[in-house]
Amino acid sequence: MTQVFDLHGKRVWVAGHRGMVGGAIVRRLACEQVQVLTATRQELDLREAAAVRAWLKANRPDVVVLAAAKVGGIAANDSLPADFLYDNLMIETAVIGGAFEAGVSKLLFLGSSCIYPRMAPQPIPEEALLTGPLEPTNEWYAIAKIAGLKLCQAYRRQHGADFISGMPSNLYGPGDNYHPEHSHVPAALIRRMDEARRAHAPSVTVWGTGTPLREFLYVDDAADACVCLLKHYSGEMALNIGSGEEVSIAVFARHVARAVAYQGELKFDASRPDGAPRKLVDVTRLKGLGWSAKTSLDEGLALAYADYRARLKAGAIAA
Ligand code: GDP
């Protein structure tokens, strides 16, 4: 595959390195000949444009990966709409605008497959963007992410900046957030089933009807796709990043039960929202760059569970 950008010797700022995706990108970049730059939350509030500009001026990255975002599962999105919209817009304008001013030569912005209309054709092609209404449970986050990818497009159109975007499907893996209410479904079920196994609880509750379909991608695979995009992609279109495989939430819950060795019953709570009925992205374009996912769901869940156990043992999982 032809390379459009040479990472060799570059200074790469991973914004959001303490998050699940940013952490995986830092791990992946260890295999490249690059210098990775990071800033902690205490050092730099990414919502503060002036602070971000000053940090960029002092640290002079050649490449920026914007993996920082206010994120959360279906309940967090629905209950914190102002935070999801405001924080994400502020981070995007500060980092993308700041990167342009600082003369950054390549920027990768990360979004999510929830940017697509609720009733988009499946698998969802990139062209489905802005063709219909969004899924209401995550529209705040989706609107912010659409604004971010449009900002990258705008800098490309107006100034020729090599700013690109990638839209991953539902991610899971080491470094996930295990908040009991605000996490995404993989972390929520790993935690709930692990607790149920240890407490010998006869059943575990899974939100919704179990019928929604989701495409799960192991986060280190997503990070590998990001490096592929940095090296091989330069274009306006935000490219989909996915495994190409979907499962129902009910089947997914059984995979988690297997990984955790939980043998109790799964009960579905239909009073909880299902969210989008289906969210499988079309990865034809990414595959065309020579990339495909490597980690099976069972392998990935075993790794995610091992990470959960290690963090629990280290006292790093809040109650
Ligand atoms: P979404 O893809 O934006 O809907 O992200 P989530 O990961 O929050 O939810 C995915 C699906 O899993 C939805 O249909 C949820 O109703 C379902 N689900 C089942 N149990 C849980 C849970 O404990 N937490 C979350 N967040 N979702 C759950």
How would you sum up this structure, described in words?
The chain is of the alpha/beta class. 41% of the residues lie in helices and 15% in strands. The protein has 10 helices and 13 strands. Helix 1 crosses helix 7 (219-232), helix 2 packs parallel to helix 4 and helix 6 packs across helix 10 (297-313). It is globular and about 60 Å long. The termini are far apart. The mean pLDDT is 97. The structure holds guanosine-5'-diphosphate. Guanosine-5'-diphosphate binds at residues 73-75, 114, 138, 170, 183-185, 188-189, 206-208, 212, 214, 249, 272-275.
Over all CA atoms, what is the radius of gyration? 19 Å
Question: What is the β-strand count?
Answer: 13
The chain-level structural class is alpha/beta
Indicate the overall shape.
Answer: globular
Quickly count the helices: 10
**Spatial ordering of strands, largest sheet:** 2-1-3-4-5-10
Strand content: 15-25%
Order of helices and strands: EHEHEHHEHEEHEEEHEEHEEHH
Largest sheet: 6 strands, parallel
Give the distinct bound molecules.
guanosine-5'-diphosphate
Mean pLDDT: 97
Low-confidence stretches: none
Distance between the termini: 47 Å
Q: What is the helix fraction of residues, given as a range?
A: 40-55%
